[in-house]
Amino acid sequence: MEPVNTDVSAESDGVAVAVDGATGTGEAPGTATLGAIQLAVEELWPESLAEDWDEVGLVAGHPNAEVHRVLFAVDPTTEVIEEAIEFGAELLITHHPLLLKGVTSVAANTAKGKAVHRLIESGTALMTVHTNGDSAVGGVSDVLADALGLQNVAPLTPAANGLPEEGIGRVGDLEEVLTLGDFAARVFGILPSVAGGVRVSGDRDGLVRRVAVCGGAGDSLFGEVRASNADVYLTADLRHHPASEAREAAVNDRPYLIDVSHFASEWLWLPAAAEALGNVLADQGHDVEIRVSTTNSDPWDFILTPG
């Protein structure tokens, strides 16, 4: 599969994807341990914000191990793990968990086991920032809302144990009214290019101002979306029945629906997360190079459409 087709260079709109920590005092910067990075990650994306069903945190690695390079990615796929090893990363941070569901074996003749063995044998630690990264301020949906130019942003579902600004999903307002077609074009323009593209349900000429978003699969939030009075709901993995039922329950055809790639909707967070972690580590005097993966781990390779 080709690398993600989006500009993630350090020169692109000021977005830094390789962050070198510095003390700012002229002294030699300190080497970070995996444990120190765990603390920095907890500061940015507290594990207390993770959903009860989720599995986040350190998956493999010794807290005392030195870390000089970190790779951020959406998925801990074999290709991503190899990219991390080639980069020389001692730590791979992924949004999606490797071991979300229970396993009874990590034998190397299984897919999960092969990944675990490759990580340990190469000296590459693995850490997961999943729904805690969704819920936190500056998390997945926050970055998506910011990229779309939303204002007055608030969570769709406020966090039970967090700040008022934390929670799953976001809702906010566009600076100016757009047609659904123009808004969908804006969505298409900010996301990495993937086979599935952008699917839209609604009148192309319908007007939208209030926008609800949820990076990743968000078809469990239709009740919250309707309560927010959103004109359009942008999320990923919309299944037939929830989408059909949402259309049937729509008032004045709203909310319109925009369905995007799960991978693409969450990839946008990676450069922001890399920069945030780099800033925290630099403030602590640690010198760590942080890079964003260029591997496209969207599972689809091509699509056929009418016409």
From TrEMBL:
Pfam family, one: DUF34_NIF3
Keyword set, alphabetical order: Metal-binding
Keyword Cytoplasm appears in the UniProt entry: no
SUPFAM superfamilies given in the database record: NIF3 (NGG1p interacting factor 3)-like (SSF102705)
Top-level taxon: Bacteria
Subunit structure and binding partners: Homohexamer.
Family: Belongs to the GTP cyclohydrolase I type 2/NIF3 family.
NCBIfam families reported for this sequence: YbgI_SA1388
Protein name, entry field: GTP cyclohydrolase 1 type 2 homolog
Taxonomy of the source species: Bacteria, Bacillati, Actinomycetota, Actinomycetes, Micrococcales
